[in-house]
Amino acid sequence: MLHRLSEMKSGSSGVIERFDENEAQVKLMEMGCIPGEKVSVEAIAPMGDPIAIQVSGYCLSIRKNEARHIWVEIA
């Protein structure tokens, strides 16, 4: 079952399956968020934004608005 990255809890992980069509898609792919790549949620800021994720071998901080366009298959 697919979930939006923005809805995942800290400590959860999965595999990026696809993106919503939007202008941030290319930016996210340039940062290593590509379909088939494992992603894990490392931390979520107290107010819920931004989200720290582990992807492509490094830690990346993205806005919740960007994370909602990434669909993940939960591991």
Rg calculated over all Cα atoms = 11 Å
- The CATH topology is SH3 type barrels
User: Helix/strand/pairing class, anyone?
Assistant: mainly beta
Largest sheet: 6 strands, antiparallel
Beta-strand proportion: 35-45%
Could you say how many structural domains there are in total?
A: 1
Tell me, rounded to a whole number, the average pLDDT: 91
Low-confidence stretches: none
SSE string:
EEHEEEHE
Q: Distance between termini?
A: 10 Å
User: What shape does the CA trace take?
Assistant: globular
- Assigned CATH superfamily: Ferrous iron transport protein A (FeoA)
Q: Determine the fraction of residues in helical runs and give it as a percent range.
A: 10-25%
Biggest sheet strand order reads 1-6-2-3-4-5
Q: Would you state the CATH class? A: Mainly Beta
CATH architecture: Roll
Walk me through this protein's architecture.
- The protein has 2 helices and 6 strands; from the N terminus they run E-E-H-E-E-E-H-E.
- The protein is mainly beta and 75 residues long.
- The chain has a single domain, classed as SH3 type barrels (Roll), CATH 2.30.30.
- The mean pLDDT is 91.
- The protein has a 6-stranded antiparallel β-sheet.
- A hairpin with a 6-residue loop joins strand 3 and strand 4.
- It holds the Pfam family FeoA.
- This is Ferrous iron transport protein A.
- InterPro entries: Fe-transptr_FeoA-like, FeoA, FeoA_core_dom, Transcriptional_repressor_C.
